Amino acid sequence: MQADSPYAGPLEGVRVLDLSSVIFGPYASQVLADYGAEVIKIEPPSGDSTRHTGPALEEGMAAMFLGSNRSKKSVALDLKRADAQQALLALLATADVFMHSMRPQKLAKLGLDKDTLRERFPRLIYVGLHGFGEDGPYAGLPAYDDVIQGMSGLADLMDRQNGQARYLPTIAADKTCGLVGAHAILAALFQRERTGVGCFVEVPMYETMVGFNLVEHFYGMHFNPPLSAPGYPRVMAASRRPYKTRDGYVCMMPYTDLHWRRFFESVGRPELARDERYADQAARTRNIDELLALLGSFVIEHDTAHWLGVCDRLEIPAAAVARLEQLPDDAHLKATEFFVPIKDRAMGEIRFPRSSVRMDGRQAPITMPPRLGEHTHELLKGAGLGDAEIAALKS
Q: Which is it for strands 243-244 and 249-252: parallel, antiparallel or unpaired?
């Protein structure tokens, strides 16, 4: 699909300068690259730290870097130097979007604060990917995924469910905020098409994750005075987990009255559907932990295949638990060509999960993540710098 399609993506012609690092910003700009934007990663001479995180076949091209930097270009600049700052300004004159994850107080020293750049480049979308909003007492504090998971209530949710405060085993704050950052940039680009003027886009991790967590978990606290404690009971239940079968695990979700009536009939306990604790949605929500524990006691009696067959017959959503290493062989992911192989000149075949989004069935092609500074000469030359100036920067 990728090789045969001439489709360049809906963001063809949009140039993004990305001064961010690690995952939050790079994941956001990778979404834009997947939509066809030209994303230029501005890196220090040492490179993004993720270039050295995880297994690698080549120095500076480690697994964590590959995961959030596909389809980009790389320019290496030491922004402590005045000539490098001028080179960045030359690139900014050609850009539609400038995004960074530096603390705002550091940017003024480099001449990259929002007021300076927006006055000089009025059409520029200036994006601050911050830990905290600029008008609060936490403004300018450093923020990492673990810290934000704790501050935003995620670790508390784990404590409420299982009796121990824990982080999710995924960088949930970085990736969630990266997705929010990407759609905020798209909204800003759409606004600029209407007004002809750029804007300042602020995406603070803390507020973003608090809002994300409270979609369902604000619960009774929407009301004043609160009608209940925070936390949606169905997903807080300690028994909400994949259910152990005789030979593995199965994810099952009877949800409606009909689902539960059919399930109780299939296990020979039809009277449970009339039990006042489980008879309707409100009652099941109040007694959800007990109900899910009961479900688990039935599931353990048969193997996974049995329950998949039962749920298919009863039209109850269900699936076997997949191991991560099984996903590349999943029949659906193979049919949709979700994993894209790319032949690299030095590392051989490298596989990437592609974007899940298609436009009229098409996607912009995926290209390899860039080597550090791979496009420095080409892009600075295109921005008007001479060969001698570029050579001086590289020295």
A: antiparallel
Spatial separation of the C-alpha atoms in residues 215 and 60, rounded to whole Å = 39
- Alpha-helix runs per DSSP H in 63-144: 63-67, 82-92, 104-107, 114-120
Which residues make Cβ contacts (< 8 Å) with residue 46, sequence separation at least 6? none
- Over residues 90-95, the mean pLDDT reads 97
What is the pLDDT of the chain when averaged over all its residues? 95
Kindly list the structural domains of the chain, giving each domain's residue range(s) and its CATH number in brackets, ordered by start.
15-213+334-394 (3.40.50.10540), 243-320 (3.30.1540.10)
Q: Cis peptide before 317, with omega less than 30 degrees from 0? A: no
- Cβ-contact 192, 125 below 8 angstroms: yes
Amino acid at 210: V
- The pLDDT-based confidence of 394 (bands split at 50, 70, 90) is confident
Question: In a 3-state reduction of DSSP, which class is residue 294?
Answer: helix
Question: Running DSSP on this structure, what letter comes out for residue 359?
Answer: B
Report the alpha-carbon distance of residue 377 to residue 75 in Å, rounded.
Answer: 8
SS3 of the chain: helix, strand, coil, percent, to 5 = 45, 15, 40
- What is the number of alpha carbons within 13 Å of residue 97 lying toward its C-beta? 36
Global pTM reads 0.93
- DSSP for 35-64 reads TT-EEEEEE-TT--GGGGSS--SSTT--HH
Q: Each residue of 364-393: pLDDT tens digit?
A: 999 999 999 999 999 999 999 999 999 999
Question: Residues 34, 182: contact at Cβ < 8 Å?
Answer: no
Closest CA to 53 of 77, 31, 23: 23
Task: Give the pairing type, strands 97-100 and 125-130.
Answer: parallel
CB 149 within 8 A of CB 24: no
pLDDT of residue 4: 54
pLDDT single digits (tens) 140-183? 898 999 999 999 999 999 999 999 999 999 999 999 999 999 99
